[in-house]
Amino acid sequence: MDRGNPIVAEMIHLAQTALALDGDDPEVLLPVAFVTALPGGDLSGGISLINKSSGLNPNSAIAFRMAGTLYAYAGDTTSALTNLEPAERLNPLDNGGAVYFAYILVHFVAGEYEAAVEWTGKTLRERPGFAPALRYRAASLGLLGRVDEGRQAVQRLLELVPDFTIARARKHIEFDMNNIFKTPGVAESFYEDLRQSGVPEG
Hints:
202 residues; mainly alpha; 2 domains; globular
């Protein structure tokens, strides 16, 4: 979908309503921050809201994890890691896909593709069907020149999401991920290496 979709407009409306009704509740701020940052397209606004949430409840591992993810989306890997550290300390047993995805994103944005591959491996051992990890695994392997391994990741990805294409990947980055790649050429490399790993053009 795109931001013209009525569902997206309704999400944003509900988030704004929740913020107006109880903008000082840290639990309310969690989903509001996410919707503001990604579907709403206001990444800096979403980061401000999630920081407010963690300030109101400094014991919320979820808030720090979400802050880490949003900072990674913004290309600020230092702030991302600064927030992921307390998230791990507050909830060391949380090793699910959302936690690992934040680290995948941090390393991919930083150009640390070997580390991104390592984190995708950890994620997929816990959640074999986690499509975002497979996308980044395929792209990272392609960027490392490990095309055969990248094709294996794409094969698994296409089993899970048969209609996945380069066009869909591009739309996902431009919409859901808000053009996070600040380094020139990184986004196009992401698409190209998905292509080299066998993702169809669409």
